[in-house]
Every structure is written in structure tokens, then in C-alpha cells.
């Protein structure tokens, strides 16, 4: 593993312990495959960068932009980061803190619109504590 990736992984682990309020709010609705059965990871390292949330199966990254994404230098950094991630095959969806706080359902709809529809043949994930019952056909 390259040194930058190793540093990213260590830093991502630290970030998972100190999510922003907006990240906690969104994570509460993405975790445990709650959005159409898709799994997401929080603070996921991709090369030298760390994505706020990533759906590995569909190569979708969700970034929550707060006040720290408003200066020219920060915007330029985000553009370089986006170019790197897109070059790696990722699609990036950016939302703002106010989007998450004031329109969480709209944010979830925007995320769902970036994902393929759930398969009709795939059953929905069980809720916590539930188990699937398997029945055999009588012959």
C-alpha cells in the first residue's frame, strides 16, 4: 500500500469517530442499507482523499459541503479532488449542510436518483432483529 493511502486510511478512521452533525444526520438514513438496499460506507478513503459517504457497488460518492468549502482555495481543492475521483471512475454528488438539515428527504431522493432502481428479484433487506424465513415447496 502506498504511503498516502495508508495515511488516508488512518485519518478516515479518526474522522469516523468525529462526524459533523450533518454527516450524522445523513448517515442515520444511509446506514444498514436503508436506501433501496444499497450499502454505504462513511469516511471512505479513495487514494489520497476521503469521501464523506461512498456506495462501493455503484461507485457513487456523496459529499456534504459545509462552510469550509467556500473560499477560492477550498473550491480549487474540491475541483482537483473531484477530477481525481472521476478519473478513478467515481461519480460525485455534492449536497450542502442546509440541504441535509432542511430537506433530508430531497437529499435522499437525489441520491436514489443516482443509483439504479432496486432489483425486483432482490428482496428488501431485513429490519434489525428480523430474519428471513425459508419455505420449501411441497411436492
Summarize the structure in words:
The protein has about 140 residues and is α+β, with helices and mostly antiparallel strands. The chain has a single domain, classed as VSR Endonuclease (Endonuclease, Chain A, 3-Layer(aba) Sandwich), CATH 3.40.960. It has five helices and four strands, in the order H-H-E-E-E-H-E-H-H. It has helices at about 5-15, 20-30, 70-85, 95-100, 105-115, and strands at about 40-45, 50-55, 60-65, 90-95. Strand 1 and strand 2 (about 50-55) form a beta hairpin. The protein starts with a helix and ends in a 26-residue tail after the last helix.
SSE diagram, text form:
Blueprint: H1 3-16, H2 21-30, E1 41-46, E2 49-55, E3 60-65, H3 72-87, E4 91-96, H4 97-102, H5 104-113
Relevant terms:
139 residues; 4 strands; Endonuclease, Chain A; alpha+beta
Question: Could you give the order of strands across the largest sheet?
Answer: 1-2-3-4
Structural class: alpha+beta
Overall domain count? 1
Uncertain runs with pLDDT below 50, 5 residues or more?
A: none
The helix count comes to 5
**Text of the CATH class:** Alpha Beta
Globular, elongated, flat, extended or rod-shaped: what is the shape? globular
User: Which oligomeric form is depicted?
Assistant: single chain
* Main sheet overview: 4 strands, mixed
Measured as a percent range, the helix fraction is: 40-55%
SSE order? HHEEEHEHH
Looking at CATH, the homologous superfamily is: VSR Endonuclease
Percent range for β-strand residues: 15-25%
- What name does the CATH topology carry? Endonuclease, Chain A
Amino acid at each position: 500500500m502506498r504511503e498516502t493511502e495508508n495515511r488516508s486510511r488512518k485519518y478516515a478512521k479518526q474522522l469516523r469517530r468525529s462526524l459533523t452533525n450533518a454527516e450524522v444526520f445523513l448517515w442515520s438514513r444511509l446506514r444498514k442499507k436503508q436506501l433501496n438496499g444499497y450499502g454505504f460506507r462513511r469516511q471512505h478513503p479513495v487514494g489520497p482523499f476521503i469521501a464523506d459517504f461512498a456506495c462501493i457497488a455503484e461507485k457513487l460518492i456523496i459529499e456534504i459541503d459545509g462552510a469550509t468549502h467556500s473560499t477560492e482555495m477550498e473550491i480549487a481543492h474540491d475541483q482537483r479532488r473531484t477530477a481525481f475521483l472521476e478519473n478513478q471512475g467515481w461519480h460525485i454528488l455534492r449536497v450542502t449542510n442546509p440541504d441535509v438539515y432542511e430537506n433530508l428527504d430531497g437529499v435522499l431522493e437525489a441520491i436514489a436518483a443516482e443509483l439504479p432502481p432496486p432489483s425486483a428479484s432482490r428482496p428488501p433487506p431485513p429490519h434489525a432483529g428480523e430474519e428471513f424465513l425459508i419455505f420449501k415447496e411441497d411436492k
